[in-house]
Amino acid sequence: MFHKDMTATVDYAAYAAATPKGPLERTTVPRREVGEHDVLIEIKYSGICHSDIHQVNDDWGSSKFPMVPGHEIAGIVTEVGSAVTKFTVGDRAGVGCMVDSCRECEACQAGQEPHCLKGNTPTYNGTGKDGLPTYGGYSTHVVVTEDFALRIPEGIGLDVAAPLLCAGITLYSPLARYAAGPGKRVAIVGMGGLGHVGVKIARAMGAEVTVLSQSLSKKEDGLRLGAHEYYATKDKQTFKDLRNYFDLILNTVSADLDANRFLSLLRLDGALVQLGLPETPIAVNAFALARGRRTLTGSLFGGIAETQEMLDFCARNGIGAEVEVIAADQINEAYERTLASDVRYRFVIDTSTI
Amino acid sequence: MFHKDMTATVDYAAYAAATPKGPLERTTVPRREVGEHDVLIEIKYSGICHSDIHQVNDDWGSSKFPMVPGHEIAGIVTEVGSAVTKFTVGDRAGVGCMVDSCRECEACQAGQEPHCLKGNTPTYNGTGKDGLPTYGGYSTHVVVTEDFALRIPEGIGLDVAAPLLCAGITLYSPLARYAAGPGKRVAIVGMGGLGHVGVKIARAMGAEVTVLSQSLSKKEDGLRLGAHEYYATKDKQTFKDLRNYFDLILNTVSADLDANRFLSLLRLDGALVQLGLPETPIAVNAFALARGRRTLTGSLFGGIAETQEMLDFCARNGIGAEVEVIAADQINEAYERTLASDVRYRFVIDTSTI
User: Is the same domain home to B27 and B125?
Assistant: First the structure.
């Protein structure tokens, strides 16, 4: 089969939203034939990220349909192009939030492909260099240049590895950037799909880890996964007890939070890293930044090299996501449950059920 | 003379605001007698900082009267306490924004006394450890512990040195923190009392320096003082031309600016440092931070050790402020002119006229 620009394609089964707000239904989508630098990955598991739901719902106003979401992809290489050197058939491989970038700008040269000045190619809802729409991981297969495929080390189950490709690297990257480790006090705001992986990684890095969650309902899990302390943010006393305390706060919550309250928990030169993307601007008092030279910053996922580093780190430390594996026909229900925070802690689709 | 708590005091001439909004008039104020760790400085010059006007006007709601403003103080040591080792009579000395701190908290231990967790003792509008109100530099003399007095090197005129004690260190500190130097692209937003000193210091550090000013009215001065480039922010093209360009932007403007527009001028991992303190919160789009891992932070003035480093740096590089020296009876007029931005670039009071 040929795409309109004469790119040879092969159709694969997938779950797609045909129109905004879904539902997601079984269909097929075309992917390019395996080029010389490409690998074909038979997807085994694909995580459901909260941003998939935003994209399906067109919350950010840039969604294209049909849409096959999914950028937490883990599987097995079943075909490699003639020039491929990094993978052989049978290798465990993953794909995260992007499948290409310009590779030439200063961000790409610095290994920060998510920040590509020309825009990276997102794993879905984008357009590849092949001219085709990109389709994500809710599918049986994906074709990707080997440079944007990751090696998934032995020792991590593919099901619990899948969410590392987005949730894992999104937390690992700022933890690494701010050198979380022994002697550093790290707070993770939000004990969800992102937060729970952050707890595990920060703990493995050697930091002192505190969860700041709305309530104490997940405290037992938090401590079990590695947190040293667990506080409820609905309790005003939390903000008194922890004033000037943390070196680093990673805010995984997308809902509007009072950034100034969280900034007040930072000690000298501490950083608040916003990982969730609230819809309204964050209102910051200049004095809350000046006092203690506190920093507010953001982060996307990480570059390819850093993502590989994260996977290797997680394998060495026995870290995977806490997952609930579902069949493909449960995707729409899983979206409802994700929106209701009724998941501990990540839905992962068994793509053999597609 | 004795203060009510039996601290022995001596009265000195000063210009004070008796009530909010002034005017400032000649009076006398009590200062403690020189203690064993104190120096008495005969003030020669005292700069007028914009924040003096805010304090006199009680804009921040914490002003105490009578108030003697002034935290840009340069003079000569005329008496030293028995235990003083850092100064002898006749030394050139300065006092900046604070005259003491707890000296024990982690900020003080880190040499970041402005961020003292118990609060530093401001040079005026505060209460000293002696129990007396602190009075600033619009006066003939000041008594200060030697640990919070600075050595003003030979080679800088005391008149042009005075503003370095606030304006100079306020710019030097973030420039040093973010390693401004060769290969770094630094923007200074606002070509006023703070900004013009920032241009000089950043240039001397070896950075590529750009001024971002509302208009081009001070362009000639900016280039003369060391800027490589000078752009008008009222010109929309500026924000297109300089997108993703700077490593560091120091915003000296207190007025509300669109932080997102300035963030868009930062390259990967760049920092926007807010030095002016706008009255309304800064509204930041989370995505403007996430994209490029941009940082928004604040800064106060600097610690004592860093302030000394700054003065030594300025002396080595022939840097002083651009000043207009006035007599004490021109202070009220100078306030009006400062509010109207009619000063190039700092008023300095010749305190012999008090």
Answer: yes
